[in-house]
Fold Aminopeptidase.
Amino acid sequence: MWKAAILILSVTSAVWSGVPLERQNLPSTPRQEVPVSGYRLPNNTIPLRYNVELTTHVHDHQSPNQFDFNGKVTIWLRVLEENVQNITLHYRQITVTHVKLTDATNTVLVNDDSSFTTDVTYEFLVILAPSILRIGDYSLELEYHGELRTDNGGFYRSSYTDARGNTRWIATTQFESTDARHAFPCYDEPGTRAPIGLKLTHGNAYHAISNMPIKSSLPWNATYTVTEFEDTLAMQTYLLAFVVSDFAFISNTENKQSVYANPVSISNGDLNFALEAGVKVINALEDYLQVKYSFPKLDQIGIPDFAAGAMENWGLVTYREEVLIYNSTKSPMGQLKRTASIIAHEYGHQFFGNLVSPKWWSYLWLNEGFATLMQYIAADKAYPDLRIQDMATVEALQNAFQSDALENTRPMNSYVETPTAISALFDDIAYDKSGSVLRQLQHAFGDTVFRAGLKYYLDAMQFQPATPADLAAALQRAVDDHQALPSTVNVSDIINSWADQSGYPVLHVRRNTDNVITLSQERYLLKRSKDAVKGTWYLPYNMATSQASDFSSTLPHDWLIDQTVELRPSAALNWTIDDWVIFNKQQTGYYRVNYDDKLWELITHELHHGNHSSIHHLNRAQLIDDSLNLARSGHLKYDITLKLIQYLTKEEEYVPWASLNNGLAYLNRMLAGSSKYNLFKKYVWELVEPSFHKFGLENKPSDTHFAKLTRNILINWACQVGSEDCLTQTNSQLAEVVSNKTKDIDPNLKGVVYCNGLRNADRNTFQYVLDRMHRSQDPSDRMLLISALGCSENTALLEMYLATSLDETGDFGYRGQERSRVFSAVYVNGRVGLETAMKFLDANAATIDRLYNGGSFGGRAIGSAVTGMARRVVNKEQYDDFLAMNTRLESAGYLNAGELSTAKELSGENVQWTNTYFNVIESWLEANVKSGAVRFGTASMMTVTTVAALVAVLL
């Protein structure tokens, strides 16, 4: 599943008659690894097969039962133990009306409407047999009914507006992680698999699609059609998907791929790229993994209302509508990259998560970490000109560093049971950290060995649940084949050191007067304690020097296993006392690097006065990000960092600028209230000005993808610090749009122009853009405008804008996922936005909790928002108000203890930073930046958080 800004099942055909499937060689379900408690099924029975039959009336807008559904599921199951009398399944928000239990001799044991109990807390449906069930096979038939939900979870309803302005309803699904039980009672756990047969009865004017090809679609009567699908292979319930709609589609029949969406999007040609990318990406994955995709077809569909960004249902991948849309004339270039990457992520799941599933949610990273890694590998192979693999550094690794630097961060392996706790696992640790740790293994073992290990893993564990030990065994086999590790190091210990510990290390590099380099590791924390925080990881290290400046090989020189090691020059790796050295080539290792002051000085000298491109551009990005964050946490003096990043006056590569964009955002936010803020803006302008003038404010036909992205960063910062050229041109462009009413801005510059123009816009201009957003039927355009509207610094306009997110009349046309975007667009936007959003949340928590949440990612909208706001609290007054609000939210049940703790740590770290470093940086600015010189102008000053948010939208 793709995490939303920030995030279903299948079947094999024996028969519908009820023949037990013991002859189908189904994989057995492993026993529990931990004592069964609470929310875990006893698993003394297992499913052999499901037949699911559902009837929906979603097509009939005149029916009072339009959003009801009826269901029948037949489960062939096996009793595994003696003395079993009850059969326990999962269910959620459905009403069971009849139960029939039959044994292998076709003797009916139960046939009534009362031989069951339900437990709403644990979501158990318990079938009560009249006597002890013997070990063997049984058939369980359940009839039930339910209602299509409105929260984007389970079997739910969505809608779109057709070309005539009519609302058209559809029925669709989102089952990960625990919502399959809403569509049919089942064994709703990731380690349990069975084939699934599916029949859908629906209106004649609609059609149905699911994971597998259609077996038959026949009229049932004058109004309804019955569509039956081929059976899936054995799979987890959460991967089942089906959609009943009147959507259109485009197909590549040769590659058996199709893309479905509402007819308007199809007619505009907005889905052509998604189809092309799907074909290229699956070919890239099959080539890289040397494993064939398992199902007979692979469809994609854009759903108007969708809580997660995308979902990897086997054979039918579902997406937020906006994700699939790319129009070469209307969409920014970054949207092409975003669409390709998300498709690669979900297609990566077809192997990691679908073909091989985690034994329990504890090992979610075996799904999401691999999908994150594959999104960069496969998308890059499909579209090499976009250089997508380079972006893993700033998008995944450096992003994970932020979340993983907190004291209360969780390890990759984390045991949970409740649906709420399971949902909370879909975080930066499961995605970005895990993907970065796997990328580290790829480079540390070598790509050839890593790929061989993955093939061993996928071949050995296909259609089975896996644990990290299974992955380690497969990688170890490949390592042994190629002798890719020292004899003292094994793969299991490596993986355990990264998966079982919270956090990550900083590698300290010290060189003494005898030219001996000492390496040591400690856990990196944003809030540094007086004593080093112990922790030992299996850390692969390598280095480049001014004498050996080849950054191409990322294989390790060796592994740091203990706390420290000493390195001396050798024939293979030599350096002098005056050479710069860079560790962690291309930042493929998941750790920060801190050097002694002399080494930082030599590196800075090379960047400023030597050939800065002699250091790999990914390592230049590493140096920027590491130095800014090492200074933030007290590991490094700020004067070293602020001096180093001044080399950016000659930087033209995107990834280093992206690293600066993320790190400088924090400094700008923290210094916005300083009396020396004008000096800071001048310092930033001096960094940006040369490249800003070189790249200009207009896109060029010869621009690469990276050039367009770099231009946006430069424009954002130039406008933020008050460049008259930037402010005048962007404001005039928006003014022309408002006066012209029909003209629009270059899509690659639209976000920054709208945001800057709205900063101090009057009510009429603000209302024009708000109305334009509401009228737009283009979900990508709506997303951009929602973010831009949050840029206003007018409290009254922001209050009015936030109030629209609570509208339930439909006048504003918000999708469920768009409401929370309105809120985040406001709170990321500096002091005015943060404080306005806090008051709004405090006053409207109950309504926000009800309207902002959605589906399997639901129930966490307020928690996610509070965590985001915590990063933007910058002073003691805000901190006190913020904590008081959070206490009220926790008391009302809108925050859990973990979310409260994280928010307190993040906001408290900011206040501590202000007390410790505010004066230090002010003094440095006074000593090193001359006042005056630059013409800043008096127009709006964009806040740094808006810069970062806008760049994220444009990416």
About this structure: Residues 5-36, 933-955 have pLDDT under 50 and may be disordered.
